Amino acid sequence: MKRRTLVISLLTVVSLIAVAIALKLRLDAKSNHRLNVLIVSACSLRMDRLGVFNPDIKLTPKIDAWAKGSFQFTNGIAERPWQNYTFESMDVVPPDYLVKLGYRDFTSRHGAYEFYIPPVEKKDKNLWYWSETDVLNYATGLAKMKQLLSKDEPTPFYIFAHLKYMHYPYLDTVNMNDADWKKLSPKSQELLAKYRSHPEKFDVQLPLIELITNSFSLAKKKMGVKEDVYSVAGLVSDRARNLRWRNSPGFKDDIELVKELYDLKLRRFDDFSSDLLNLYGDKDLQNRTVVIFAGDHGEAFSEHGVIGHSVNVYDEMLRYPMIVKFPGMDHTQVVDTQITLRQTALLARKIVEGEITAENFVEKLRTLTNDYVLSRNCPDTIRSVRYRSEWKLIKNADSDQRELYDLKTDPGETKNIAAENPEMAWKLEEYMVDHQADYERITARSTAAGVCTAN
Amino acid sequence: MKKILLMILLASSQFVFAATMQDALKEYGIKLDGAHAGVVIKDQHLSGSSKSQHWIEAKTPADEHFEIKIISPLDQKAASALIASEASTIKKIYSAPQTPYMGDIAQAIGGCPTTFGPLEKKITMLKQDATAVLGAADDKFKFGACSSEQAKYKGAYLAYYDESSKSLWTWRIFVPWKTAADFKSDWLSPVLKRFQK
Asked: A123 and chain B: CB distance < 8 Å anywhere?
C-alpha cells in the first residue's frame, strides 16, 4: 500500500513538473513572438505627395524603398484634423497596461516622443506649447531614439514618436539653405525672393508672406494687433484678407509656390524620417519590430479656399497615408479600408497582445474598423461623415444645407450632389444624428488653450 | 392619349407640390395666417433606417425665408443634445476663428462686431419654450455675416422637442436686414405669432 502511494505521489509530482515545464515553454514561446512596436506619426502629410501612393511623384525615394513589403492604407482618415488629437488617440494603449504585458515603458505618457523643429525665434516661447510632453528637436530626438533602440534588452518596446517637421511646410527658416531654394522653379524662386526682400510691398499677399516668413512684425503692424502673439495660420484664417488674396491675379502662381515649398520640405522629411523607419539599419531590430508609419491629418493647398489644416473637413485635410510593416514581410498589400488614428492605436494594442499578426492582419482589421468615420473641424462648426470611402456628407453650421460627394467619381469633392441624392444624404445625416455624442468626444488634452472644444 | 393625360397629371402635381407653407404644415395641425402663408420651395419627406425627416423650405412675398426640419422619432435626451450643439456652433460662427495652435493671432482678430450677433432670446413657439439664437445672415441665408455689406437678413435659429410626437423641430427664419437697431428690436415675436396650433 505504501509503495503504491509512493508511486502515485511520484507520478503526480512528475506530471505537475511536466505541466509546469509545458506552460513555461508555451509562455516563453509566446513572449518570443512579442514584437516591438514603433509608431511613427507625422504632421501634415499629404498622401498624394508620397511616391508610395503616387508613383508619378519622386519626392520620397527613401520612404518609398522602406515601404516595399508592407500593408499600405489608402484611407487613413482624421477624426480631428489637428495634431493635439493624435496624442489623445494613443491613449487606448495606456503605459501601465504595456508594463503589465511585459513591455518597456519609456515615458510616463504611452511612450510618446514629439520631434519638433528647432525654435524659429529664440524669443518665442509659444513654440513649446506642449510642456507636458517630452518635446525634442529633430537632432536630439533622432539621436535619443537611436540610443533607445540600440539597447539590447530582452523585453520588447512600444514607442510612439510624432514627427512635426511638416507642420511648417512653407516656413523658409527651418533647416533650409540657399542650395535648397535653387530646387524651386525659376518662377517660384523669383516670387520668393520678392516676398522675402520687400514683404511690406505686398499687402494682398500677406497671408502667404506670413506663412513663408513668419513675419509677424509686419503682419501685426498691418493689422494693428498689439498683443505679442505668435501664429502660423492666423492671417490665413482672416476670411476677408484671404478672399482678397484668392481673387488677386497672381494667386495661381502663389499656390504653385506653396506646393513647391511643401515638396521641398518633404524631400528633407524623407531624409529625416527614413533612418528611423529603417531602425537605423539594425537587422536584428528589423526582425523583431513592427513599424507603423502614419500621417495624422492632411494639408490643404487651397483646394477649398484655405491653406493648412484644422479649418474644414474636406479630404485634403482629413486624408493621410499609413503604412504597416511587419518583420520579414516581402509582399505589398494595398488596404482601402477607412482607418482612424484611434483605430490605429487599437491595432497596435492588438499587435502587442499577440492577437494580430502579418498573417491574420486583413481579417482582424475588419473587427477594428467601421464603415463610417465621423470628423469635425477645430471649432466644431463643420462636421462630416465618410462612408466606406464612397460617400461623404458635410454639414456646416452656418447654413442648414448639406454637401454630399460621391468620392468614387469625385474624390476632389467638387460637385455637391445632395439635391440629386436626398435619400443618401439623409442616410448619412441619420448616422450623424445617432452618433451625435461621438463628435463631442474630445478632452482638454486634445485641445490647446481651450479651443477646439465642442461647446 | 393616356400618356398625355399622365404627363399632364405629373406636370400639374408639381404645381400642387408648390403649395403654401400652410399646406406643408397641415399634417401637424399648424395654422398660418393666409397673408403670410408663403410659397413652398421644398417639401421633402425622407425615411431612414430608424428615423424620418420632413424638410420644408418656404418664402413669402416680403422676402422672408423659412427652413423647417422635423426629425422623428427621437428621444428627449438626443434632441436636447442636438439643440445644444447646433445653438452653440451657430454662436461660434460669430466669434474669432479658432485654431488648435496656441498663441494664434487669429484669436486676437476676426471676431464679429456684436452689432451682427449672436443674440439669445427666450421665445415660445407653438406652445413650446425655446431659446432662439439670432444673428446676421448673408444673401445665401448663411449665419455669420459680419459687416453691413454682407448682412442681408436677420436670422433666427430655434429648436424644441415635441414630446407628443417624439420629434425634434428645428426652425431657421430669415427676415430682410434693415439696420443694426432694427436687428436688436423684437422682430422675431410677430413672425412666430403667425403660427398657431
From this structure: no
Pairing of strands A289-295, A36-42: parallel
Which residue is associated with the grid cell 477607412?
A338
By Cβ distance, the residue of A225, A436, A449 closest to B85 is A436
Task: Report d(CA A128, CA A116) in Å as an integer.
Answer: 9
Distances A2 to A5, A7, A12, A13 between C-alpha atoms, Å: 5, 9, 15, 16
ipTM: 0.86
Q: Looking at CA atoms only, how far is residue A43 from chain B in angstroms?
A: 13
Q: Which residue has the higher pLDDT, A92 or A380?
A: A380
Cβ–Cβ gap A426/B53 under 8 Å: yes
Which is nearest to A418 in space by CA: A389, A396, A394? Answer: A394
DSSP letter for A308, please.
Answer: E
SS3 B107: helix
Among the partner residues A126, A225, A429, nearest to B102 by beta-carbon distance: A126
A201 alpha-carbon distance from chain centroid: 37
Q: CA A114, CA A102: separation in Å to the nearest integer?
A: 24
Residues of A in contact with B44 (CB under 8 A): 422
**Bridge partners, B125 (sequence order):** B128
Contact A233 B67 (CB under 8 A): no
Rounded Cα–Cα distance for residues B172 and A17 (Å): 77
**CB < 8 Å to A227, chain B:** 105, 108
What single-letter DSSP state applies at residue A235? G
Grid look-up 509608431 returns: A39
What's the pLDDT tens digit per position in B124-156? 999 899 999 999 999 999 998 888 888 999 999
CA gap A377, A79 in Å, rounded: 9
Cα separation, A380 vs A398, in Å, equals 11
How far, in Å, CA of B153 to CA of B191, rounded? Answer: 14
pLDDT tens-digit series, residues A72-99: 999 999 999 987 777 778 777 887 888 8
Strand partners, A439: none
The residue to which cell 499677399 is assigned: A205
Alpha-carbon gap, residue A88 to A71, rounded angstroms: 24
Alpha-carbon distance of B172 to A396, in angstroms, equals: 14
Structural domains present in chain B: 2-196 (3.40.1000)
CB-facing half-sphere around the CA of A236: CA atoms within 13 A = 22
What is the sign of the dihedral through the CA atoms of A217, A222, A228 and A231? negative
Distance CA(A78)–CA(A340), nearest Å, equals 6
Q: Using the beta-carbon criterion (under 8 Å), do B71 and A455 form an inter-chain contact?
A: no
Interacting residues of B47 by C-beta distance below 8 A, sequence separation 6+: A426
Please check whether residue A87 touches B, CB under 8 A. Answer: no
